[in-house]
Amino acid sequence: MNENSVGKKIVKRIARFFLAVLLLVAILFLTSRFLEKKVVQLMVEQINQSVEVPVFIDNIEFSLLRKFPLATLQFHNVTIKSAKEFHQTNFSGYQADTLLYIKELYLAFNLMRLMHHEMELTKAYIDNGFINVLVDKSGKANYSVLKEMSLEKGDSSNSFNFQLKFIEIKQFDVRFHNQFKDVSASLTIPAYKLKGEFYKESYSVATSGTLKVEQIKQGEIWFRPDVPANLNLQFDILNEVLTIKQSSLKSSGIQLNSSGTVTFGENVKLDLQFAGDKVDVKKLSRWVANKSLSGMELSGYLSFKGVVSGIVNEKVSPKMAINFSVSNGTFKHQNFDEKFHHIAMKGSYSNGNQRNIISSSLNFEQLDLSLGKSSINSEFKVHNFKNPSFDFEAGIHFFGEDLAKVVPKDFGAIGSGTMVGNFHAQGTIQGFPIHLDQFRQWEYSGTLKIQDADFQTTDKTFGFSQMNGDLMLLNQNLSVQNLNGTMQQTSCRGSLQVNNYFGLFSNRQEVVGLNTHLQLGNVTYPDITFLFTESDTTKSDYELEVEARLFAESYTQDAFKAQRLRGKVTYAKSKVQVDSLNFQSLGGTAAAQIKYDFSKPNYSLLSIDGRVHSMDINHLLTTFNNFGQGFITEKNLQGQLSSDFETEMKFVNGTLVAESIEYLGYVRIDNGILQKFEPVKALAVFTEIPELERIEFSSMENNFLISDGIIQVPKMDIKSNAFDVTLYGQQYFTGNYEYHLQLFLSDFLVGKAKRLQKQQTEFGWVEEEESERTKLYLMVQNKEDQFSVTVDKQAIKSQLKAGTKNEKKEFKKALHDEFGWFKKDSTLTKPEKKEKKKQEFSIEWDEE
Q1: Is residue 728 within 8 Å of residue 741, measured between CB atoms?
Q2: Does pLDDT of 806 surpass 60?
Q3: Number of folded domains in the chain?
Q4: DSSP label at 530?
Q5: What pLDDT, on a 0 to 100 scale, did the predictor assign at position 425?
Q6: Rounded distance, CA 629 to CA 616, Å?
Q7: Would you call 559 exposed, middle or buried from its count of C-beta atoms within 10 A (0-12, 13-18, 19+)?
Q8: 3-state secondary structure labels for all residues of 665-734
Q9: In 3D, which of 515, 534, 642, 644 has the Cα closest to residue 587?
């Protein structure tokens, strides 16, 4: 046979094949057009016989070519509405009025059966859609829409023959929410296949595909997985009993296996077992991602066994019980640099007798973990997942350096030390995340023995070291007994109690109370400056209130030092008050009530109601820098001071404002010396009495008033080595002063010492009667550094009016004889002229 004949035969065969195909397509097309109306009519009738709710279909297409040799129906936008008795309210986020929506549904039928007007369904394809499986609060379901129908094979009375063997699902969402049980879940099916003879009473099914669980929620427990899972399932069905032969869920390298039976009937009954062995917790934590786990890193190996058994329907859940354990676990939170390790866990879960979240419980029989060298051995129980209540008990052995790794950095620096004890807490969890208000509502108790602990606040204003004590916790109050160590830079021992310690962590301004009884060593001012900073109250989130009974060996602030202090200290709202304060200082003793108010923005206020006895006044003035004034200083005054007084003064930036001093009190100075005091010094120059440069007196007492920068000196008598004098007046902090003096003329003329010497005779001392001595009235002034000594005219006028004319004449004569005053008075003998020494001070006298 030549090549041309062979080629012609091949061409003829190809042409015949294409003609046959075209003929077949034409026949199929004509047949499909002939059958389409009948098939669509049968399908709509079947749907109407199957469901009791409206079904909406945008379009139905019939094809013999798409899945040849099977005939196919393509349904566009199929919508089946929810059951009529179902309540659609309170299903936010769901299209609650819709049970099922399928964008594209393909049903494949046996072509030969269609020729005999029978529909034999063999395959189904679902592409893009969702199903809402919803149960309202009364237990009514939205899926109760099917009518009773028979799908048994060989039933010739039914034109629809169910011979389904294959189902394929793509991009399909399953949404479940049971309000009656307070359970919800949603998952996406990217691709899934089911193969089996579904139309038989007894058949086997094999499945494969991918699931992605979006969320599972029961009560307050809410999981949001972020990775897909592959589910392979093989099961048999016989007499309404589904037996799982093999089931494995694989995701991110983990595998969970299950087995058991599901019995169908009037109620569905479950008897399932599931287990996992050494499941990687780190991988599992990604699959069960949850808000409360955000920021946490978990690792370890989880093993568990569980059972699910009992009836399940819209209102009833099956019983669930799980035993589990974790080994070689670790835990780290994003806020901490270190991780907990050696986590060992053993426990169980049950949904309880009521088989719901209210009766559910989680029990950790063992929950042990380590951090560095520290360890916690605990038990933990949770009941009622709707309103969870818990009970936690732990034994604690912590080292300070490990605790520092997990305490917030803004809390402070924790150094060495150990803490050994136990802790118990119980309460109700009202939601996640857990806020401070929930913590404060729980009940707490515990004891902790502290040894050699170190701590310092972030701003370094307060700290302690080598601290020991027995800590006891009861709810929001914390107490420490047998306290001893070093607080700030001083030794201390005693006890303390903190009330409402949660206020330290609150973002609201709350009162935190501190009650303490402490015996302190040598305290210095820097040790207590943390009390006087505004940040303790006005800028922080808590307000400290302190009540302390203190005893201190000594207290030092700048040049001041006191010994054996004792008193009661209270502190609140930037105010310090010291009651019943007693101490020794400056060679004497003191008792006082002190109030220090530094709540004002521009100044602080100190007030003292006190009593001092036999203090060295020279040392007092030196120590307190003369109280900010210069009119009388440590260079002028010596002696032993005793006083009962009330005083108040202001400080600006820690510096005393001298003009603000308010003082009222009784003052007594014993064994005193007044020297180089300007008012008296001026008088000494004038009188040429050298004793006035240094006046010694056995005692001086008076009431003094200081206000508006002025010292008011009431009238008082001073008996000294120079002369006896009565004086009163006022002294200004600016240096100006005005004093009124009343002294005996004889002392003024010759000096007291000389006069006394003249009166000493062979018979001893001869004292003049005071009533027989002539008095001299002077006024000593300083105005803007202009010193003067003048006769006190006003005092003389008062005295002259009270005296007789003879006394007046004798008084004038005495002054005339000594100083040449009253020259125009002819009743006085004119004295001989003497060369008058030029004086720096002027003396004036009005004749009268």
Answers
A1: no
A2: no
A3: 2
A4: G
A5: 94
A6: 18
A7: exposed
A8: EEEEEEEEEEECCHHHHHHHHHHCCHHHHEEEEEEEEEEEEEECCEEEEEEEEEEECCCEEEEEEEEECC
A9: 642
Amino acid at the residue 152: E
**Total number of residues shown for the chain:** 848
Residue 270: enclosing H or E segment and its boundaries?
A: strand 268-280
Q: At 750, is the pLDDT very low, low, confident or very high (cuts 50, 70, 90)? A: low
CA angle 674, 677, 680 (to 5 degrees): 95
Lowest mean pLDDT among 22-36, 284-298, 591-605, 814-828: 22-36
Range(s) of the domain holding residue 88: 34-179
| Residue-wise pLDDT tens digits, 773-800 | 677 888 888 888 888 888 887 777 776 6
* pLDDT on residue 18: 45
Domain membership flag for residue 93 = yes
Mean pLDDT throughout 129-151? 78
Interior angle at CA 600, CA 595 and CA 604, nearest 5: 45
Whether the upstream peptide bond of residue 714 has omega within 30° of 0, thus cis, is no
Nearest one of 690, 664, 655 to 676, comparing CA atoms: 690
Residue bearing the bigger pLDDT, 746 or 655:
655
**DSSP-assigned beta bridge partners for residue 744:** 775
Are 822 and 816 in contact by the 8 Å Cβ rule? The answer is: yes
The secondary element (H helix, E strand) that includes residue 423 is: strand 418-428
Residue 9 token pair: 């035969």
Q: What 3 state SS string does 155-211 have?
A: CCCCCEEEEEEEEEEEEEEEEEEECCCCEEEEEEEEEEEEEECCCCCEEEEEEEEEE
State the Cα–Cα distance between residues 751 and 748, nearest whole angstrom.
Answer: 6
Bigger pLDDT: 682 vs 131 = 131
- Spatial neighbors of 845 by CB under 8 A, at least 6 apart, are 791, 793, 796, 815, 821, 822
Report whether pLDDT(470) > 90: yes
State phi, psi for 208 to the nearest 5 degrees: -160, 150
State whether residue 337 is helix, strand or coil.
coil
**Which of 179, 213, 244 is the last residue in one of the domains?**
179
Q: Is 50 exceeded by the pLDDT of residue 90?
A: yes
Residue 14: partners with Cβ closer than 8 Å, 6 or more residues away: none
Q: How would residue 689 be classed by pLDDT, with cut points 50, 70 and 90?
A: low
What percent of the chain shows pLDDT beyond 90? Answer: 21
Helix (H, G, I), strand (E, B) or coil at 290: coil
Angstrom distance (rounded) from CA 203 to CA 242: 9
Band (pLDDT 50/70/90 cuts) for residue 816 is low
Residue with the bigger pLDDT between 159 and 243: it is 243
The mean per-residue pLDDT over the stretch 236-259 comes to 80
Give me the pLDDT at residue 537, please. 41
Q: Give me the sign of the Cα torsion angle 448, 450, 455, 457.
A: positive
Q: Is the pLDDT score of 177 beyond 80?
A: yes
Is 448 part of any domain? no
Q: How far apart are the C-alpha atoms of 107 and 87, rounded to whole Å?
A: 32
CB atoms within 10 A of CB 463: 18
Domain-embedded: residue 242: no
Give the span between the Cα atoms of 429 and 385, in whole angstroms. 9
pLDDT of residue 24: 44
Q: How far apart are CA 385 and CA 360, in angstroms?
A: 6
pLDDT of residue 601: 85
Q: Is residue 676 part of a domain?
A: no
Reading phi first (left if > 0) and then psi (alpha if -120 to 50, else beta), residue 497 is in beta
Residue with tokens 């200083």: 633
Closest CA to 520 of 558, 563, 578, 460: 563
Is 252 a residue whose pLDDT tops 80? no
Triad 641, 644, 646: Cα angle to 5°: 120
Domain stop point among 149, 179, 209: 179
